[in-house]
Amino acid sequence: MPFIARRLGRIKPSPTNVLTGKVAELKAQGRDIIALGAGEPDFDTPQHIKDAAVRALQAGETKYTPIAGTLKLRQAIARKFERENGLEYDPATEITVGCGGKHVIFNALMATLDPGDEVVIPAPYWVSYPDMVLLAEGTPVFVECSEQTGFLMTPEQLEAALTPKTKWVILNSPSNPTGAAYSRQQLKALADVLLRHPHVWVMPDDMYEHVVYDGFEFTTIAQVEPRLRERTLTLNGVSKVYSMTGWRLGYCGGPKELIAAMNIVQSQSITHTSSITQAAAAAALDGPQDFVEPHNRLFRERRDLVVGMLNEADGITCRKPEGAFYVYPSCAGVIGRKTPDGMVIADDTAFVTYLLEAEGVACVQGAAFGLSPYFRISYATSTEALEEACRRIRRACAALGQPRT
Ligand SMILES: Cc1ncc(COP(=O)(O)O)c(C=O)c1O
Fold this sequence. Notes:
binds pyridoxal-5'-phosphate, three-stranded antiparallel β-sheet, Aspartate Aminotransferase, domain 1, 405 residues, 2 domains, four-stranded parallel β-sheet, 12% strand, Aspartate Aminotransferase, domain 2
């Protein structure tokens, strides 16, 4: 349509959001659907955080706040960075807050990318990175991280991907969609490469920082290599750890020139996220963190259940991830096989379509994350639903014809 800007032609709607819409439609039609597509915890926002929001409302904190967020919130964020990551950021100039982690990334890319600037994105990637880069007129450069390297980018791959046009490297650990996470040593090895390329900036997306298992030690790159601090934007948010996806708040720490530029983008678009959300987020960051551990225990049990059951499905193999609440199983063993209706499973998109139509299990195809043939399951849902979903997936796989030999 000529009325719509050409820039929109470069991007597509988020595939995970599209799936959420499709699931709602099927459920409205009365279909029994188990949705494993959405990346949000299934527990409620902790009560003390809600109470802080109510108090803020009653105290009349209902007006505009500074563009970067209230100083009280930025101070809480600075304390968090210092306490948990050993990073010092000045709350006055080196921290800003946006309308979700997604929006903070968007502001950073809009503030820094000129046409042709390259952004290195390890694949599989979170669905929104490439499209946000494209919307900001940059060029995504994908680095395929195979299952053999634990879905992680190696230093050699990073070195090979960098060019004089590289502006950013995005590092998401633990990862959406694979749950894979970089150890301190692995981050250090990537940092060593970046030290040799002083024009390149790095954006660690630490949204799943707290969701790690089996004693895995989370670290972020500016902590591992302080010499990179002046070209690192450390990104985080309250959505996942505090189950605040609907409240819309993400934050970051970085050099003041970058933060100032991001604040200009923000001042001419959303102004700031809700004042009430900011009060709730400050309470979240400063308040008790004791619910994290029981939630992680539950997530770990679910991870083990899903990995175990999927590895019993004919044609599926599933790596056990270090963190987040996703698994990224390979469906290589079902490709080329026929469904009972005679349809050939040509790729991972055909496979997830078959799972949805035949068994009412909704998950996302690996193609959406840039590495096939895989699919993503979010196990942030009830244990009973997960067990039933895995049973259905096993049944769907067992119903496929064997490949011709
Ligand atoms: C890796 C990653 N980064 C950022 C985000 C954005 O989070 P928010 O809901 O705070 O915008 C998500 C959400 O799914 C994510 O998985």
